[in-house]
Structures
1.
Amino acid sequence: METKTMVPIVISVVAILIAGAALSMGYRAVQAPQVPVAPTINPAQVSITTSHGNLTLAQLAEIQPGLGTVMLEYGNRFYIMYYAAKNGNWDLASYQLKEALEIQETGETTRPGRAPMLKSFESAYLEPLNNTINAKDWNAFQTAYNNTVQGCNGCHAANKFPYIKYTLPSNPPSLP
Ligand code: HEC
């Protein structure tokens, strides 16, 4: 073959090789993380030493806070958040809501069956409530707060706990 014909062919081959290499690098970059290998250990047989004696890993997993414990903290933070906002201490109100969301995540982890409802509650009620805190708008806060409490109790009723009706304690907590 003549050199004239060879040059474009060589250029195309090199271009294809470069494109191929680039594609495979890109592919590697977006590859899904490796699926963890199923543990070969039995949590009931892993012994953890505590200052009170030994517990198994299975026992430790079992005693992580469920929704009842999470909700006690949730309710308490809601109470403090309300009065903080009422006193114009918006930073404290914001902090309480942020911490409420953190304990909610614990509930989503230990009770994954409830996670979808908790997540939709967050976007339907807690995010609008948080916006009123950021805006330091007491009137808007009150409306969003009342809507949220209805959402709280709606979820209780939907989960067969209609008798758990959160209401705001009438005495304010002692606040800084
Ligand atoms: C995703 C549904 C859901 C939402 C949203 C929800 N709760 Fe609950 N809550 C529950 C369930 C379920 C229980 C019962 C606890 C259990 O499962 O043991 C409960 C229990 C409670 C309890 C009783 C805890 C106890 O054991 O004495 C309080 C207080 C409470 N919730 C407050 C709130 C407040 C305040 C909100 C809103 C800011 C809220 N909850 C939102 C599902 C929800």
2.
Amino acid sequence: MTGVDHPGSVEPNGVIGILGGGQLGRMLAMAAARLGLRTHVYCPDEYFPAADVAAAKTNASYTDENALATFAASVDVITYEFENVPVETVAFLLSVGACVRPGAMALEMAQDRLVEKEFVGGLGAATALFHAVNDLASLDAGLKKVGRPAILKTRRLGYDGKGQTRLTEADIDLHGAFEKAIEFAWAEVGAAPSILEGFVPFEREISIIGARGAEGDIRLYDPTENVHANGILKTSSVPAAVSEATAEIAGAVAANILNALDYVGVVGVEFFVLPGGAIVINEFAPRVHNSGHWTLDGCAVSQFEQHIRAVAGWPLGDPARHSDAVMENLIGDDVHAWRSMSEQKNACLHLYGKRDARAGRKMGHVTRLR
Ligand SMILES: Nc1ncnc2c1ncn2[C@@H]1O[C@H](COP(=O)(O)OP(=O)(O)O)[C@@H](O)[C@H]1O
Ligand SMILES: [Mg+2]
């Protein structure tokens, strides 16, 4: 039932459709259930973590129009937990009358690192120097522009540091010649359309988890300080060791992105902080974000609940932090220590129900409250 005063709003007992069924979908489904909302998860994988906690599931590909149409007819609003859902999938869902939040524009901007950099740069945010790379000649030209060290990243489908390679003086020495080093780097990214970025000599990395409601209201969580190991997020801590001024600028960038995309839902925006406190935006994810997992235990309303509230057209909740917290990702074999972690004081353990603990796979997380 749709309220007269709040068009597009989903009442309790309504159904939220979620594209993608990983741990983010699982935690979204649990947050929805707490609010008396049901979820229907659509995922191409045969087994997926959200399946355990969703009221309904569809196991079909993102190009299966029959399955998509049936899914659309069974839900009140559709969202996604995976930023590589094909834009065509969202366009098809819209064509059959579905409401998709956030919309297709957020996906388009976030799926291509080059488009994303140009978009956030156009909003006035500082980015690393960058150059589009399509072949060895443009890689060579890019290195002249952005300098060394530099990072070469595929424009599409990279995550957790995959699809990227560094080009440093040491690499060039290792290969014996500059030409050999760039050939190697180009092969490393599969000779796919890429972006070359100048290396940002950051002091720390932070992120802002922000939300925009259906009526344009914005709520931001406190900046989170992030540490990566091998390209994968290892820990997220709050409070971040940044000044009020730095936090405010990062928050303003996140709000600009949300407004520019007429966004409804939660976004995760990653930044580099330079010595002195200036910030450089790295990238944004049009979804709930790993660096916001601490909000499950550190805030009255988590990023997952906030996202569900936004896409359901509900008032946004209070993002204030009630505890200091450190979230640690449990990657691969880390998860085998679940029993001892579950006994620690002030430790909040979250396991994602994945069957095998492959190397580099996010199996769960533990948030320690302070
Ligand atoms: N231009 C850069 N300068 C310095 N470090 C970088 C740069 N780009 C990426 N990194 C490092 O690599 C990590 C992963 O890169 P990122 O672009 O965020 O890709 P992913 O989509 O895999 O998260 C970043 O969090 C940061 O630690
Ligand atoms: Mg990243």
